[in-house]
Automatic annotation (TrEMBL):
<feature type="active site">
    <location>
        <position position="170"/>
    </location>
</feature>
<dbReference type="InterPro" id="IPR002204">
    <property type="entry name" value="3-OH-isobutyrate_DH-rel_CS"/>
</dbReference>
<dbReference type="Pfam" id="PF03446">
    <property type="entry name" value="NAD_binding_2"/>
</dbReference>
<feature type="domain" description="3-hydroxyisobutyrate dehydrogenase-like NAD-binding">
    <location>
        <begin position="164"/>
        <end position="284"/>
    </location>
</feature>
<dbReference type="GO" id="GO:0008442">
    <property type="term" value="F:3-hydroxyisobutyrate dehydrogenase activity"/>
</dbReference>
<comment type="similarity">
    <text>Belongs to the HIBADH-related family.</text>
</comment>
<dbReference type="InterPro" id="IPR029154">
    <property type="entry name" value="HIBADH-like_NADP-bd"/>
</dbReference>
<dbReference type="InterPro" id="IPR008927">
    <property type="entry name" value="6-PGluconate_DH-like_C_sf"/>
</dbReference>
<dbReference type="GO" id="GO:0050661">
    <property type="term" value="F:NADP binding"/>
</dbReference>
<dbReference type="InterPro" id="IPR013328">
    <property type="entry name" value="6PGD_dom2"/>
</dbReference>
<dbReference type="Pfam" id="PF14833">
    <property type="entry name" value="NAD_binding_11"/>
</dbReference>
<dbReference type="InterPro" id="IPR006115">
    <property type="entry name" value="6PGDH_NADP-bd"/>
</dbReference>
<dbReference type="InterPro" id="IPR036291">
    <property type="entry name" value="NAD(P)-bd_dom_sf"/>
</dbReference>
<dbReference type="GO" id="GO:0016054">
    <property type="term" value="P:organic acid catabolic process"/>
</dbReference>
<dbReference type="GO" id="GO:0051287">
    <property type="term" value="F:NAD binding"/>
</dbReference>
<feature type="domain" description="6-phosphogluconate dehydrogenase NADP-binding">
    <location>
        <begin position="5"/>
        <end position="161"/>
    </location>
</feature>
<keyword id="KW-0560">Oxidoreductase</keyword>
Length: 294
């Protein structure tokens, strides 16, 4: 039986994920806070533009969310609850705290449905290609029930444990992203000071042991001062605050996360919050005394 699926939150990630659900023949309805985005996508994909989140829930067996932060997930859950049908599964692809996932799950389960936290990694490129890494927390049987929905957006689906375990895994991922961003910026600033052709550096080191997704995808644009998102710096800042809170509770030090939070705060104060996280290079190029300021 086809799972009638709805999508709430048609931003940089949500819109291409919804497109892949439509390609898989699963998408029934969409809703977005800014209505024009929903109207446009509903027309493009020939699906229903729901009047509001509870109208969307009324039409669907599976409701997907991809919104910004903790409060936005809880607001969206409250808004869809009146329309929730018994057995409906809500999948939250947003990056939020494990605590928010548990609060959301309690509300959905009390309403007769079930909830999976399913944060993703792979950027807008992965969202477009349907190859995202999906880190799932929740009931294993529920995951199996909605597997086709997860597989329409993901190349790797991993069940990490109970509700909240997906978000905990994503927190680990975000700490890694902070370290990789810092390492790539430090290395590129060093390479520039050495007078190397950075396009050639990126090309050759990407093929070796230092190769990584961020360098390959963002390296060529960041060295040209192009910081189109991608992944907005303000969103990674939000994620690293979640990581910091989780680490403080466990008394685990996260020095790279702390440095990155401080650097992002500086960039946000300078008005770069809507840029891609690779805008971190602005600070590294400015700090490199052998190079001209950007
Ligand atoms: P985005 O482009 O800023 O889109 C955010 C979406 O959430 C928009 O559709 C926005 O609606 C909606 N929204 C925000 N607050 C809302 C609220 N209170 N109620 C209803 N809708 C609300 O962000 P994104 O890049 O798609 O990221 C979405 C989530 O995925 C975030 O949690 C992010 O951390 C995570 N993520 C992003 C990436 C990436 O590379 N971009 C990768 C992995 C995970 P409007 O259109 O009205 O603003």
């Amino acid at each position: 039986m086809t799972l009638q699926t709805g999508f709430i939150g048609l931003g940089a990630m949500g819109a291409p994920m919804a497109r892949n659900l439509a390609r898989a023949g699963l998408l029934t309805a969409v809703w977005n806070r800014t209505p024009a985005k929903a109207a446009e996508l509903a027309k493009e994909l020939d699906v229903t533009k729901a009047a509001d989140p509870d109208d969307l829930a009324r039409r669907c067996d599976v409701v997907c969310l991809c919104v910004s932060a903790n409060a936005d997930v809880l607001e969206s859950i409250a808004a869809l609850l009146p329309g929730l049908r018994p057995g409906t599964v809500v999948i939250d692809y947003s990056t939020v705290s494990s605590e928010t996932a548990r609060l959301a799950a309690a509300k959905i389960r009390a309403g007769g449905g079930d909830f999976l936290d399913a944060p993703v990694s792979g950027g807008v490129e992965g969202a477009r290609a349907g190859t995202l890494a999906v880190m799932v927390g929740g009931d294993a049987d529920t995951l199996e029930k909605v597997r086709p929905v997860l597989e329409a957006v993901g190349g790797r689906i991993a069940h990490m444990g109970d509700v909240g375990a997906g978000q905990a895994t994503k927190a680990v991922n975000q700490v890694l992203c902070a370290g990789i961003n810092q390492a790539v910026c430090e290395a590129l600033a060093f390479g520039r000071a050495l007078g190397l052709d950075l396009d050639k550096v990126i090309d050759v080191v990407s093929k070796g042991a230092a190769g990584n997704w961020f360098l390959e995808k963002r390296g060529p644009t960041m060295i040209r001062g192009s910081f189109e998102p991608g992944f907005k710096l303000s969103l990674h800042h939000k994620d690293l605050n979640i990581c910091r809170e989780m680490a403080q509770n466990l008394d685990v030090p996260l020095p790279l996360t702390e440095k990155t939070l401080a650097d992002y705060r500086r960039l946000m104060a300078e008005g770069h919050d809507e840029e891609d996280i690779s805008a971190l290079l602005r600070l590294w190029f400015q700090l490199d005394r052998n190079c001209q300021k950007n």
